[in-house]
């Protein structure tokens, strides 16, 4: 109790002190102090008068509250909010086009702002000031201290005493530092202790974790125009495949087949790529080796032809040979219509005693050292024909009487069709085959003629070769006695035939007896006409490319004859002094043709220039013992290929004289086209006919 | 396969061909008739050149493609033929010098 009393008195003293200090202050303070006084009084009173009971003195203007209201507890929350700050500031948002309240309102309340005037210590002004202020430094400190005193009661009226003084000191320090003077800390003279302490610093522990880095791969690519194009193409192809798959019902077999194909592809990936490229390289290498020949082929025109009047020459170009075909003779030649540099060579033997194997070989002008395709056959080939529209279908006739069809696209070396004894193969060598137009069912078909006297039509129906005898060549009047007295007609041996270019059903057959029969596909037993052409077997018979009436024939009786099919006697006859192996019309002129003989010469004729003699007679092969067997003109280029009995094929270029087009009078346009050629021929024929008519 | 081998052999034995190199799509020579260092050198250098040449041709017209490339110098001629798009080129060097056959 005495302790309490003391505190009370101390407080009252302090309170009175406060009062005395605040006396000159406002009256409102007085009221507050009075209240304090009274509180103090009650407190002191508590000690003395507690037993006596409380005597509350209510001020007059105090609020009257009920008991319940008095007991009500008011919670006061001390927050750091600024009571003067607005609670709902709204701003217009252009994004949402409406007024939106701001999420947080600034709660800062500024109580006191003092704008100081700081100067950099090194600036001129500062130096000047320092100079001025250099003397009254001490005065300043005192002044600041004095200035502090009125501040402290204002700022720290409610603080406790110790804190007040300490606060005052600190503020003095801070004011000094604000003034920009670096001086020693003026510490409290009476009661100052500088004591530093350090809190416990928790030991730092670094903890980190690292995940597995995601797998990275370097990727680099270029995006060129062509790469984009390639990607587009791929996508297109995929789309098309998907469409096909959607349409077609997937068959299991096909899938398996496809899988096999895929496997094969991946295995032989490297090699197949190499194949194509190796071919290109081989051709390049050949081009280098035979560079001069290639240049000649393309550009050389024999200038000396101008001085030679009408004669022409043949310039030898490439020579094609194949090692394995050395002992065989060239028995057939055919140019490919679609690929102008590709030609087929059939190899076999004409010699009856030397029958053995044969070969079908394809060469390209771009590579004269090695054939493009090689098909070995069991029997010698005697004739071949390449389909006009499908350059991969080749019909072949053999010495043993079979006919076969090869598909160049296939990988196998076997023909896709082959006639057998059951399916009507010939019993004698097949001398000529020729493709026809597709029949009404769109099946390919071809004809063959053989020594057994039959002209047979073969149709490729799905997987089979179906044959139809078109005509049987019978010798007129000759009848032999067969067994049991039956009279059998003797068959003539057909050795060559040719179909008319325009009239589909009309064709000519040359026989071993030397006769040429004009036949029709419609009539199977009768000939339309027979010409007594030659004394020996007719080796070749060919219709003129332009003139529809004219055909040419050659024979081993050393002659070449030109006919008009309406007239029974030949228009022209040429004697070539040696057995003529083959004759061919040129594709560019109706009056030019060439013939090969067994003495190794090529005879070229142009009827519009010289009706009696060849304008070019040239030995083509080096050794005189080689016989030339076949000749073919290239449909586009001015070259001919000549085959001989040693298995070589020589290509020759025709000199300009041999390729003459009719000269027109100046001023007139050069008429081009087949009509000109026909007219040319007609002119010649009419010349011949007139003397005949006049003679007759 | 055998056909390809034969073709390669024929090329190699052709008159004037000095060497052939076959290179795969990554630029690694898989077959060569020359010594190792030369092969590697040729393979590396020509691969880039062919790629560039091909890129040029195709940039001008994407439907076009490089068929082959001849490099004629005073001493030799190098012939390069690229494989399918993406694979490496085929090079044949030719004529009185090393013949490099670079194939891809």
Structure in words:
The complex is a heterodimer of chains A (696) and B (104). With 696 residues, chain A is an alpha+beta fold. In chain A, 27% of the residues lie in helices and 27% in strands. Chain A has 11 helices and 32 strands. A 4-stranded antiparallel beta sheet of chain A has the order 3-32-31-30, with helices on one face. A 4-stranded antiparallel beta sheet of chain A has the order 4-5-6-7, with no helix packed on it. In chain A, strand 9 (393-398) and strand 10 form a beta hairpin. In chain A, helix 1 runs antiparallel to helix 2 and helix 5 packs across helix 6 (161-179). Chain B is of the alpha+beta class. Chain B has helices spanning 2-13, 36-60; strands at residues 17-23, 29-32, 69-72, 77-82, 89-94. A 5-stranded antiparallel beta sheet of chain B has the order 2-1-5-4-3, with helices on both faces. The two termini of chain B are 15 Å apart. The chains are: A alpha+beta (696), B alpha+beta (104). Chains A and B meet through helix 7 and helix 9 of A and helix 1, helix 2, strand 4 and strand 5 of B. Chain B: This is Dynein light chain roadblock-type 2. Chain B: Residues 4-93 form the Roadblock/LAMTOR2 domain. Chain B: Pfam families: Robl_LC7 (PF03259). Chain B: InterPro entries: Roadblock/LAMTOR2_dom (IPR004942).
């Amino acid at each position: 109790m005495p302790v309490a009393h003391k505190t009370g008195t101390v407080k009252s003293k302090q309170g009175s002190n406060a009062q005395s200090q605040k006396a000159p202050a406002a009256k409102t303070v007085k009221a507050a102090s009075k209240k304090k006084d009274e509180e103090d009084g009650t407190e002191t009173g508590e000690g003395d008068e507690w037993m006596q009971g409380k005597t509350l003195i209510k001020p007059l203007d105090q609020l009257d509250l009920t008991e319940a209201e008095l007991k009500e507890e008011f919670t006061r929350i001390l927050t750091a909010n600024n009571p003067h700050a607005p609670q709902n500031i709204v701003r217009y948002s252009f994004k949402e086009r409406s007024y939106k309240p701001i999420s947080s309102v600034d709660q800062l309340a500024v109580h006191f702002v003092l704008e100081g005037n700081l100067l950099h210590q090194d600036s001129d002004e500062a130096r000047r000031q320092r100079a001025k202020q250099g003397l009254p430094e001490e005065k300043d400190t005192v002044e600041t201290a004095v200035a502090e005193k009125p501040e402290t009661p204002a700022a720290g009226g409610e603080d406790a005493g110790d804190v007040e003084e300490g606060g005052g000191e600190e503020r003095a320090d801070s004011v000094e530092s604000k003034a920009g003077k670096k001086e020693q800390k003026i510490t409290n003279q009476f009661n100052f202790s500088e004591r530093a302490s350090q809190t416990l610093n928790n030991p730092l522990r670094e903890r980190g974790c690292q995940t597995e880095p995601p797998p990275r791969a370097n990727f680099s690519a270029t995006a060129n125009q062509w790469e984009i194009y390639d990607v587009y193409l791929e996508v297109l192809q995929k789309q098309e495949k998907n469409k096909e798959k959607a349409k077609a019902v997937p068959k299991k077999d096909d899938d398996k087949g496809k899988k096999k194909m895929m496997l094969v592809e991946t295995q032989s990936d490297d090699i197949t790529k190499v194949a194509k490229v190796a071919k290109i390289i081989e051709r390049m290498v050949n081009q280098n080796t035979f560079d001069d020949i290639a240049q000649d082929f393309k550009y050389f025109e024999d200038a000396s032809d101008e001085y030679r009047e009408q004669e022409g020459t043949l310039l030898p170009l490439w020579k094609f040979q194949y090692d394995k075909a050395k002992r065989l003779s060239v028995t057939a030649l055919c140019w490919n219509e679609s690929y102008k540099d590709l030609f087929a060579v059939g190899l076999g033997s004409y010699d009856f005693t030397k029958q053995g194997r044969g070969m079908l070989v394809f060469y390209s002008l771009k590579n004269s050292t090695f054939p493009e395709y090689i098909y070995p056959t069991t029997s010698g080939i005697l004739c071949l024909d390449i389909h006009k529209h499908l350059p991969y279908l080749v019909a072949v006739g053999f010495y043993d009487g079979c006919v076969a069809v090869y598909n160049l696209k296939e990988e196998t070396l076997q023909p896709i069709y082959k006639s057998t004894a059951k399916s009507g193969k010939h019993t004698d060598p097949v001398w000529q085959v020729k493709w026809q137009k597709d029949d009404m069912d769109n099946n390919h078909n071809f004809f063959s003629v053989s020594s057994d006297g039959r002209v047979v039509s073969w149709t490729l129906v799905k997987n089979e070769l179906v044959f139809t005898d078109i005509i049987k060549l019978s010798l007129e009047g000759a009848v032999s006695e067969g067994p049991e007295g039956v009279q059998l007609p003797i068959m003539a041996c057909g050795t060559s035939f040719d179909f008319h270019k325009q009239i589909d059903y009309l064709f000519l057959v040359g026989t071993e007896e030397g006769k040429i029969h004009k036949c029709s596909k419609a009539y199977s037993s009768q000939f339309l006409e027979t010409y007594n052409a030659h004394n020996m077997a007719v080796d070749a018979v060919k219709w003129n490319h332009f003139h529809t009436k004219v055909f040419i024939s050659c024979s081993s009786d050393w002659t070449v004859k030109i006919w008009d099919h309406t007239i029974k006697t030949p228009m022209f006859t040429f004697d070539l002094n040696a057995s003529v192996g083959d004759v061919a019309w040129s594709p560019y002129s109706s009056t030019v043709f060439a013939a090969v003989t067994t003495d190794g010469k090529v005879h070229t004729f142009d009827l519009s220039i010289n009706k009696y003699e060849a304008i070019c007679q040239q030995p083509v092969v080096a050794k005189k013992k080689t016989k030339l067997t076949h000749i073919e003109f290239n449909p586009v280029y001015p070259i001919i290929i000549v085959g001989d009995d040693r298995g070589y094929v020589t290509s020759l270029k025709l000199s300009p004289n041999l390729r003459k087009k009719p000269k027109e009078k100046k001023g007139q346009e050069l008429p081009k086209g087949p009509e000109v050629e026909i007219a040319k021929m007609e002119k010649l024929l009419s010349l011949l006919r007139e003397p005949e008519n006049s003679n007759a | 396969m055998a056909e390809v081998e034969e073709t390669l052999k024929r090329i190699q034995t052709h008159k004037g061909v000095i060497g052939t190199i076959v290179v795969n799509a990554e630029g690694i020579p898989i077959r060569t008739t020359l010594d190792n260092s030369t092969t590697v050198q040729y393979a590396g250098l020509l691969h880039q050149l062919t790629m560039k040449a091909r890129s040029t041709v195709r940039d001008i017209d994407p439907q076009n493609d490089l068929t082959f490339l001849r490099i004629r110098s005073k001493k030799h001629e190098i012939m390069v033929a690229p494989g399918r798009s993406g694979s490496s080129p085929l090079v044949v060097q030719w004529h009185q010098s090393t013949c490099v056959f670079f194939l891809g």
